[in-house]
């Protein structure tokens, strides 16, 4: 319980330092891109807890809309507490919850607005990351590339996104973190009570799920374990509130299935608080 | 004498043209689902020269615009602003003041920048009341593809003001 309060405190404390933005789920891949010339700033407090320890991190993300379908993002962390024995995870589909600095391009390659508040759209993400630590989970950590694709439906009442991604870490000093394929699914709902028209506050709730299949690490030039991948499925709720240019969201994921390769720590939960602002 | 007459004609035409304009737009917007979406569109529209008042409704999917007197805005510019915000501009109900003209058997209202061809769906009663000269009319402008906007539109008149 103390951890939840810490995350809440960290997130709220950033409110006065950074103007931030984000308007979808926290953990799952989504599709919206900014307006042409639009700028968003986003500050997050996040934590991942395993059976033995927990990480705490602030993360700042800058978004810029090059066109209404193409945006660039840059995200950088302030790590407060790292995990000694970190699970192999990206943690959060939209931004790393490990110590990576990441730059990415988002391209919304399909969009069909077919009704009031309704649209189908698909977005591809391609990013490059650099770690802020030398060793992660007792393995040298190098630069990485990340690609993802997401497709979804938005309306005034229902949301749904389905996506998948892949992160590949380059070798560093004869060691290499295992690659990370993952998939996410999000269902969102805005109850009638939150259907007040703009400029009234706009709230919605999500059920988010994330499945990760990290590969083996390579240590001293040798793959560390078996040919099998870990398998992990997490599910949890999140809530997003928006008013004018401001947004705040809070969510948690809990593992419902973990089939891990040996020496991989079991996770207990992930929590995140996100504060957003559109400039 | 001929020169004076020419100057008068040119001056009068110039006055008529400068008064020709859109005065009100209720723009239908598809794909806008959230408060920051509405905020972004509202802010983008407010930045345009010639907009007096903007109101955006998420539930109705509309942007209601009052334009200033003697504005120089076109419907194309307004719909392009909707597009760069990531949404799709559909039908628009507009009030325009413009010159009613006949060209090659078709009837249209011209503002300084755009031509609004009178749609066949316009009632016979309204059509019969159209007279050459400057008119103020209200009507529904039909949706055009967002990526292929021109300065030519089709309007179904609903009222002559």
UniProtKB/TrEMBL annotation, chain A:
UniProt name for this protein: Uncharacterized protein
Organism: Autumnicola edwardsiae
From TrEMBL, chain B:
CDD domains, sorted: HMA
Protein name: Heavy metal transporter
Pfam families: HMA
Molecular functions (GO terms): metal ion binding
UniProt source species: Salegentibacter mishustinae
Residue ranges of every copy of the HMA domain listed in the record: 23-90
SUPFAM superfamilies in the record: HMA, heavy metal-associated domain
């Amino acid at each position: 319980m103390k951890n939840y309060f810490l995350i809440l405190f960290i997130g709220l404390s950033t409110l006065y330092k950074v103007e931030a933005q984000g308007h979808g789920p926290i953990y799952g891949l989504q599709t919206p891109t900014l307006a042409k010339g639009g700028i968003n700033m986003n500050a997050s407090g996040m934590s991942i807890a395993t059976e033995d320890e927990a990480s705490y991190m602030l993360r700042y993300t800058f978004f810029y809309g090059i066109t209404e379908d193409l945006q660039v993002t840059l995200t950088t962390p302030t790590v407060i507490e790292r995990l000694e024995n970190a699970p192999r995870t990206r943690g959060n589909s939209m931004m790393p919850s490990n110590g990576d600095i990441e730059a990415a391009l988002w391209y919304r390659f399909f969009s069909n607005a077919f009704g009031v508040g309704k649209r189908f759209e698909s977005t591809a993400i391609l990013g490059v990351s650099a770690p802020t630590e030398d060793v992660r989970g007792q393995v040298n950590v190098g630069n990485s590339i990340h690609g993802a694709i997401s497709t979804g439906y938005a309306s005034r009442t229902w949301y749904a996104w389905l996506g998948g991604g892949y992160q590949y870490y380059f070798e560093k000093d004869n060691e290499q973190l295992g690659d990370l394929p993952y998939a996410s699914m999000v269902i969102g709902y805005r109850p009638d009570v939150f259907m007040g028209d703009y400029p009234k506050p706009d709230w919605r709730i999500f059920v988010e799920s994330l499945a990760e299949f990290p590969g083996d690490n390579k240590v001293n030039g040798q793959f560390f374990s078996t040919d099998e991948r870990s398998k992990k499925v997490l599910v949890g709720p999140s809530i997003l509130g928006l008013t004018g240019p401001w947004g705040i969201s809070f969510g948690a994921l809990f593992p419902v299935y973990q089939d891990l390769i040996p020496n991989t720590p079991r996770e207990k939960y992930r929590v995140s608080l996100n504060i957003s602002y559109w400039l | 004498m001929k020169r004076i007459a020419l100057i008068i004609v040119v001056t009068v035409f110039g006055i008529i043209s400068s008064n020709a304009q859109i005065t009100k737009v209720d723009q239908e917007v598809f794909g806008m689902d959230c408060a920051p979406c509405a905020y972004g569109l509202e802010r983008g529209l407010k930045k345009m020269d010639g907009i007096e008042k903007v109101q955006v409704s998420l539930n109705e999917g509309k942007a209601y615009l009052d334009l200033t007197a003697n504005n120089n805005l076109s419907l194309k510019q307004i719909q392009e602003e909707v597009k760069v915000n990531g949404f799709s501009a559909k039908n628009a109900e507009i009030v325009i003041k413009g010159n009613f003209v006949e060209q090659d058997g078709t009837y249209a209202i011209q503002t300084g920048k755009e031509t609004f061809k009178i749609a066949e769906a316009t009632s016979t009663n309204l059509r019969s009341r159209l007279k050459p000269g400057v008119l103020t009319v209200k009507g529904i402008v039909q949706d055009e593809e967002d990526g292929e906007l021109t300065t030519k539109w089709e309007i179904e008149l609903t009222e002559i003001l």
